[in-house]
UniProtKB/TrEMBL annotation:
Domain of life where this protein originates: Bacteria
One protein family per Pfam: DUF2653
Name recorded for this polypeptide: DUF2653 family protein
Organism: Paenibacillus septentrionalis
Length: 95
């Protein structure tokens, strides 16, 4: 199963909302990829910025795949990538 940028952002928003005790709509996310750090996300909650590393993104995706699709996948079963032609990120659960 493969999801794209919007759902990855939703996964991060839901995860951060649960951790911070705010509504998912109070969170903004910007995904990026850098050779030095891999996949990262800059997250704004109540006007404060925080960077998430790939491990944090994987945790959010792991929870999202289970809560939304009832797929029990582990981080090692999730592959992240970028579709440069479509200019979007993707995450694939290999179950």
């Amino acid at each position: 199963m493969r999801i794209y940028t919007d759902e990855i952002i939703n996964a991060i928003c839901l995860n951060m909302a649960d951790r911070r005790g705010v509504k998912p709509t109070d969170i903004e996310v910007q995904l990026s990829w850098e050779e030095e750090y891999g996949y990262t996300a800059e997250v704004w909650v109540n006007g404060r910025s925080q960077y998430l590393l790939q491990a944090n993104i994987m945790e959010a995706l792991e929870q999202y795949f289970y809560s939304e699709y009832k797929l029990r996948v582990f981080r090692s079963d999730i592959l992240l990538g970028i579709d440069e032609e479509a200019e979007q990120f993707w995450a694939e659960a290999r179950a």
